[in-house]
């Protein structure tokens, strides 16, 4: 297996807070990699650095061996890296279908956008297939702002997938949604994984991570602490320390950790 | 539904087309001419600010530039007064667009709130230049070649040219809305950073939209200059203009097609009528302010959207579809 | 270059600039706490000036003494505007809407002032308005100095309130982050209303000095609001110290250009400086930079 996405020695401070401190992360091609760690350990910042939303103070990000450090978010996306946000971000005042169409033109010059209609029949068909895949096809004509929280999560996943990215970064896909929906999302990820997609998932729900991922990296205080298979990570004493600050009565596999 | 929509558009267009043939009183056709000018400007303003959410309050820059283009060229080229001067109208639009390119490049580097203020600052820079540069004639303004058409005829060509500009602005706005580019503007309005992360070249899209919206406004400025025959910097670079077209678009419905058209028609015709009838601008200010507050407080999406949603009972329909989908999802899980 | 002209420009910058800074502080406070751009600030300054005018002409009340009436009156006006309109705005377009709402309020007031006071220019008069005195060979006009002193007193009072009182802590917490402020039990709604009131109340003082040093009518408010807005943007929106520095530099730059080049370009010089600063520092001199991820 080869490394698809790699972050090396990433550091980033906000004011006096060192959010990331020489952090390393590798995502193997066609893997489902989990990224866990206590709150404030820098997971979302690392996501932001890898997708061009935050420029790192030091370190490099590479994708398929090409350096993409300091690329802007649109350029990162055009290379084939899609992501979702922890607090779902959809385009509230346009229709669900129109949300889907935004991402379909990532390889097009902006001038072309002026002269062509907002969608071709095949683009609409693809968009509808993906909406169907996540189960919200019948909501296509509604303004996206009318959707419930769970439906928004599904929409955000769908509109990232419509551009057919090689790797998808999911920031807490199971956060704030009910159990049935969590299972459903996990099922979708498995299906997509079989079709060759690579995933990097930040999640607090341990059950979700442990059952889904082939490899897990634990972050602590802006650094990568441990990487390995879910089973290895689960029993690593360093991880217990990170989560419990030295305590020894609860392990990260004891359910979802919040706080 | 679609067909009845087309029918309404056709009827409205027909009404505008025959209006000056039915109503021949010059003071009425003057009001109609100004209403058309503002309809075009508000539509064009909405095409950028309404779609993208970047509220520009310096569009007077483009109106004024168009007006000065018309005045300066017609004076210096010693043009014969008359219909030939209409050819300068599109040129006014071109000049306005050329000015909008660097202005947009500078102003759109910042986010929404600061953008508003920069457009205001740019506006005052231009007003100041028009007042203080020698070639603009200063506060004395510029007199255009005097058109000696008969007063019963004078307004009619202007009216139809203005109507053509309104149609142009509307068609442009519709095609932008239907284009990929228009979808990108709307995405920027809803969540600019997210749009960037989905590959939308937000910078280029915003700058293009800004420059495009300047074109029609420049044409309107040129047409205004030709109509009144004498321009003054404080009237063609008027802060009231900036805010008026924004209010018109907002009153009708920001980001909608019919909203700015209707808002401009009602407000400009109303203002002209009140000014002519009562010659009391202050009363108009109070009425305008009060009307506006009522709309913002009770119909924040604008009059057009408010009534359309009432008529079509949109909220109810949406709730029904959502409920149905939730039920369907639950059913799937039950299996 | 003429040294006297430079000193004059610096003097004028500090004296007049501080009055602009006072008015702009109200604006930036409102923006900082509430994300509201109050474009009615210009007409409210004029309203303050007209109130002083009415008190001095009809009741013979001294301009400075009259502030004891006009400042509380405008505080009430601010509270009413906030409760009636501003406080009801919600949603993602709140800031954009606030521009339009306060503009509508501004039109209402402008129309009313036109009807009550006509559109003819007036200026505030008192025995001391045209008096001046000499210190170190420099002429000081009494009203400018008095305006400066008053601005300093009011700004100090404002700073004292913000940094030394319990209410000030709530305000600064709301300035930093509304949601967190609400979470720790601060009544953000009440803080907003009072801040809006205070932000408007300072216009009474600013308006009095403005009216004593300039002829004005209701439409003067356009020039005023454009200056005030540019001051707070230059200083960094929401930054109180920034408003102070930007207010002084606005007048100073204008005067310098007036002396060195020509008075006709003095207004424009400031706007050009503003545009250049914003191109280099989009968040203004002292503003917080905007992160990409909201």
Oligomer: heterotrimer
Order of helices and strands of chain C: HHHHEEHHHHHHH
Number of helices of chain C: 11
Instruction: Give the integer mean of the pLDDT values of chain A.
Output: 87
Structural class of chain A: alpha/beta
Order of neighbouring strands in the sheet with most strands of chain A: 6-7-8-3-9-10
Strand content of chain A: 15-25%
Taking pLDDT < 50 over at least 5 consecutive residues as the criterion, the unreliable ranges of chain A are 246-259
**Overall number of strands of chain C:** 2
Shape of chain C: globular
* Form type of chain A: globular
Biggest interface and residues each: B-C, 43 and 47 residues
The CATH class of chain C is identified as: Mainly Alpha
Major sheet details of chain A: 6 strands, mixed
**Helix/strand/pairing category of chain C:** mainly alpha
Strand content of chain C: under 5%
CATH topology of chain C: ABC transporter involved in vitamin B12 uptake, BtuC
Mean pLDDT of chain C: 86
Query: What is the count of DSSP helices of chain A, taking H or I runs of 4+ residues?
Result: 10
């Amino acid at each position: 297996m080869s490394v698809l996405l790699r972050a090396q020695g990433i550091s980033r401070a906000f004011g006096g807070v060192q959010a990331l401190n020489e952090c390393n992360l590798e995502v193997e091609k066609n893997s489902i990699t989990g990224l866990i760690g206590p709150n404030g350990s820098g997971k979302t910042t690392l996501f932001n650095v890898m997708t061009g939303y935050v420029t790192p103070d030091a370190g490099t990000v590479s994708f398929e061996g090409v350096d993409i450090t300091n690329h802007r978010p649109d350029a990162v996306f055009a290379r084939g890296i899609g992501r979702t946000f922890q607090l779902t971000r959809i385009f509230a005042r346009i229709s669900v279908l129109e949300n889907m169409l935004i991402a379909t033109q990532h390889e097009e010059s902006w001038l072309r956008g002026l002269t062509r209609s907002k969608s071709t029949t095949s683009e609409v068909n693809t968009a509808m297939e993906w909406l169907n895949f996540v189960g919200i096809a019948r909501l296509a004509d509604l303004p996206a702002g009318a959707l419930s929280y769970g439906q928004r999560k599904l929409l955000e996943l769908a509109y990232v997938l419509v551009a057919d990215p090689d790797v998808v970064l999911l920031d807490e896909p199971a956060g704030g949604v009910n159990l049935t929906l969590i299972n459903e999302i996990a099922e979708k990820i498995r299906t997509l994984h079989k079709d060759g997609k690579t995933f990097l998932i930040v999640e607090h729900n341990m059950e979700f991570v442990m059952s889904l991922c082939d490899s897990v990296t634990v972050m602590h205080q802006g650094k990568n602490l441990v990487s390995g298979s879910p089973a290895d990570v689960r029993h690593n004493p360093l991880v217990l320390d990170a989560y419990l600050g030295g305590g020894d009565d609860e392990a990260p596999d004891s359910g979802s950790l919040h706080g | 539904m679609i067909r009845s929509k087309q029918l309404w558009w056709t009827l409205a267009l027909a009404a505008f087309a025959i209006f000056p043939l039915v109503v021949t009183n010059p003071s009425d056709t003057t009001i109609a001419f100004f209403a058309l000018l503002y309809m075009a400007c508000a539509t064009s303003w909405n095409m950028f600010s309404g779609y993208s959410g970047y509220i520009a309050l310096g569009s007077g820059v483009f109106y004024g530039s168009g007006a000065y283009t018309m005045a300066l060229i017609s004076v210096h080229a010693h043009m014969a007064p008359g219909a030939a001067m209409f050819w300068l109208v599109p040129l006014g639009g071109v000049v306005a667009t050329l000015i909008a390119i660097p202005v947009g490049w500078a102003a759109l580097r910042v986010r929404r709130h600061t953008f508003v203020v920069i457009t205001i600052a740019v506006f005052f820079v231009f007003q100041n230049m028009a007042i203080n540069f020698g070639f603009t004639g200063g506060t004395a303004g510029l007199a255009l070649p005097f058109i000696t058409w008969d007063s019963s005829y004078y307004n009619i060509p202007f009216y139809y040219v203005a109507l053509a500009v309104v149609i142009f602005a509307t068609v442009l706005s519709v095609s932008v809305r239907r284009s990929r580019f228009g979808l990108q503007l709307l995405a920027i309005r809803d969540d600019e950073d997210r749009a960037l992360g989905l590959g939308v070249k937000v910078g280029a899209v915003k700058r293009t939209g800004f420059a495009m919206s300047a074109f029609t406004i420049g044409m309107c400025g040129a047409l205004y200059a030709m109509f009144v025959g004498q321009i003054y910097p404080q009237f063609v670079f008027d802060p009231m203009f900036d805010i008026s077209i924004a209010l018109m678009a907002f009153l009708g419905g920001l980001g909608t097609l019919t909203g700015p058209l209707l808002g401009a028609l009602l407000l400009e015709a109303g203002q002209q009528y009140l000014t002519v009838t009562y010659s009391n601008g202050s009363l108009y200010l109070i009425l305008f302010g009060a009307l506006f507050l009522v709309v913002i407080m009770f119909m924040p999406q604008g009059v057009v959207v408010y009534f359309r949603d009432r008529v079509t009972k949109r909220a109810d329909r949406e709730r029904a579809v959502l409920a149905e989908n939730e039920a369907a999802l639950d059913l799937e899980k039950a299996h | 270059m003429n040294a006297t002209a430079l000193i004059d420009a610096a003097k004028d910058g500090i004296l007049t600039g501080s009055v602009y800074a006072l008015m702009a502080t109200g604006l930036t406070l409102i923006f900082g706490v509430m994300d509201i751009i109050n474009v009615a600030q210009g007409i409210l300054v004029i309203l303050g000036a007209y109130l002083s005018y009415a008190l001095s002409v009809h009741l013979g009340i001294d301009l400075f003494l009259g502030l004891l009436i006009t400042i509380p009156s405008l505080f009430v006006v601010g509270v009413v505007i906030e409760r009636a309109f501003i406080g009801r705005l919600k949603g993602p377009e709140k800031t954009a809407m606030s521009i339009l709402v306060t503009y509508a309020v501004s039109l209402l007031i402008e129309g009313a002032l036109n009807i009550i006071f006509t559109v003819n220019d007036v200026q505030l008069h008192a025995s001391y308005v045209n008096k001046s005195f000499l210190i170190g060979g420099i002429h000081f006009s009494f009203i400018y100095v008095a305006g400066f002193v008053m601005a300093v007193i009011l700004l100090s009072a404002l700073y004292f309130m913000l940094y030394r009182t319990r209410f000030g802590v709530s305000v600064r917490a709301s300035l930093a982050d509304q949601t967190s402020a609400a979470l720790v039990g601060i009544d953000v709604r009440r803080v907003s209303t009072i801040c809006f009131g205070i932000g408007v109340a300072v216009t009474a003082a600013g308006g009095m000095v403005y009216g004593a040093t300039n002829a004005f009518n209701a439409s003067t408010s356009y020039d005023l609001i454009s200056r005030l807005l540019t001051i707070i943007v230059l200083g960094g929106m929401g930054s109180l110290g920034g408003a102070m520095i930007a207010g002084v530099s606005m007048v100073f730059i204008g005067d310098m250009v007036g002396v060195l080049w020509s008075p006709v370009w003095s207004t424009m010089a400031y706007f050009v400086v503003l545009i250049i600063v914003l191109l280099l520092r989009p968040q203004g001199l002292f503003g917080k930079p905007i992160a990409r991820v909201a």
